[in-house]
User: Fold N-acetylmuramoyl-L-alanine amidase from Tatumella terrea.
Amino acid sequence: MKKIWLWSVLLLSGCHSGTGDRQVFTVDHHLNARSQEPRVKMVVIHYTAEDNASSLRLLSQGDVSAHYLITSPDGKSAPAVTVYQLVPESRVAWHAGVSGWRGYTHLNSISIGIELVNPGYYRKGGMTTCTLYPPSQLLALESLLQTLVKRYAITPVNIVGHSDVAPSRKQDPGPCFPWHSLANAGLGAWPDAGTVSQFLAGRSARAPADPRVLIALLSRYGYPVTDPASQSEQTRLIRAFQMHFRPAGVTGKADAETEAIARALLSKYGTLH
Ligand SMILES: [Zn+2]
Assistant:
């Protein structure tokens, strides 16, 4: 009985911030420091590899989440797609996991996560292939990205895929994700074709290149490199880079064109170090 009474007192006193009714300070908002920047610095794009209903359930009830989920058109409802906001932008969503980009780690705390409903990869005629993203879904994504870029002054290099920031673990949003057309809409990075051919300098696109040189370039662009000498890590990093910037040729091998693309990106957007 005594215990119950004590708890009641504690609960009641909690309403008064532990100081009773007395106000001990005021917050003065009239100054605003010059040195500051948005907490959100990047957008990470994913696919769910599930249908609309399972994606919504997993991302709202499960151990992972994203700020936004863009459904796939089911042909029944209008408008064709729905954009769910599942986590407020001011809060951290659990979408990136162990990740790194341009020197930052723990990207969940500095990014907005967007999940697109897409089945991902499937086997067809003995080949693994990815699933195209419907135009209405991409239109919704573009519109959402425009508002985020504006709100947080997100730079083109900081609009990335999950596979860019976790290349050893993740393959989404995959080579079917249209990074090039997104860049044509003013969103995300893309190299200038002229600069790529300049750096290609007459070599054939698939001529072998030095993987160590390529990995060093990818690291300077922002890719998280932990063990540059590891062959399996080299392959995964090169695959991730090619999925983003040369989806027609995802080989995991260093070649002249992949190296020229990396150099063209660095000359356009600057190097990290
Ligand atoms: Zn993902």
Notes: The pocket of zinc ion is lined by residues 46, 162, 170, 172 (CB under 6 Å).
